[in-house]
Amino acid sequence: MTGPLSGRVALVTGAARGIGLAIATRLADAGAHAIIHDRDAAAADAAVADLRAQNHAATALIADLAEPSAPAAMAAQLMAKGTEPDILVLCASVEMLENWDAVSEAAMAAQTQINLHATVRLLQAFLPGMLSRGFGRVIAIGSVQEARPNPTHLYYAATKAAQTNMILNLARTTQAPDVTFNIVKPGAILTDRNRTVLAQPGREQQVLARIPLGRIGRPEDCAGTVLLLCSPEGSYINGAEIAVDGGLRL
C-alpha cells in the first residue's frame, strides 16, 4: 500500500490491542509494514490477520520484554527476515495501581523491568540500525500520570517520567539529521486496561469532571499524533512531549 510511510517498517511494542494496535493500524494505513509485537501470540496473530485482510503489510513478533534477552532476539529475528524497523514505538508497559504505603516489591520490579529496562534494551537493539541507515523515529508512549499522578500511581508515574527523561536525553545528544525522539502522553483513554477502573461506581464521572473536553479519549486519538511524528510533515519535531489528554493534565 502506498502512502507517506511507504517502504518504512514500524515496530510497535504491545500492539495487539488498545493504543498500540490503533497506532500500528494508522501507520499501516500510511503504507508502513507494521510489526505487531506482543507477548500474547493469539492476540498478535489476530491483529495481523485483520491488518492483512485490509491489504496492509503486517507481521507478528512474539516476545516477553520482561526477559532481558528479548530485544536482542527480536532484532535478530527481524534482521533475518530483512524487516529492520525505521520506526520504534515504545507502547508496551506495566501499570500497577498501589498507594505509596502498599507499593510491593513485585510491582516495583515488574514496572521497572518493562517501563525502564526494556526501553534501554530496545533502544540498544534497534537504534544503531536507524543511525546507520540515516533515518529513524523513536516514539515513547508516556502518560498524563507523569504530570499529574494519582495516589495509586506513585511508582508507575515515576517509571514513565524516567522513560521520558531517557528519550529527551537522546533527542538532545544523538544529533543525527533524520533520527528523532519524541513522547506522546495519553490521558484517560478507553482501553481494556482502563475499562475496569472506569467501571467502578462514580469513577467515570470523577474522571470526566477533570477533562476540559468532557469525554474519555479513544486509542485512535493517540494514533494520529504518532503518524504526524513519523511522517515527512513531522520531521523537524524532536524532543517534544505531546499530551493527548483532552486537557486532563491542566
From TrEMBL:
Stored InterPro entries: NAD(P)-bd_dom_sf, SDR, SDR_fam
Any Pfam family hit: adh_short_C2
PANTHER family assigned to the protein according to its UniProt record, in alphabetical order: 3-OXOACYL-(ACYL-CARRIER-PROTEIN) REDUCTASE (PTHR42879)
Family affiliation: Belongs to the short-chain dehydrogenases/reductases (SDR) family.
Protein name, entry field: NAD(P)-dependent dehydrogenase, short-chain alcohol dehydrogenase family
Organism of this sequence: Bosea robiniae
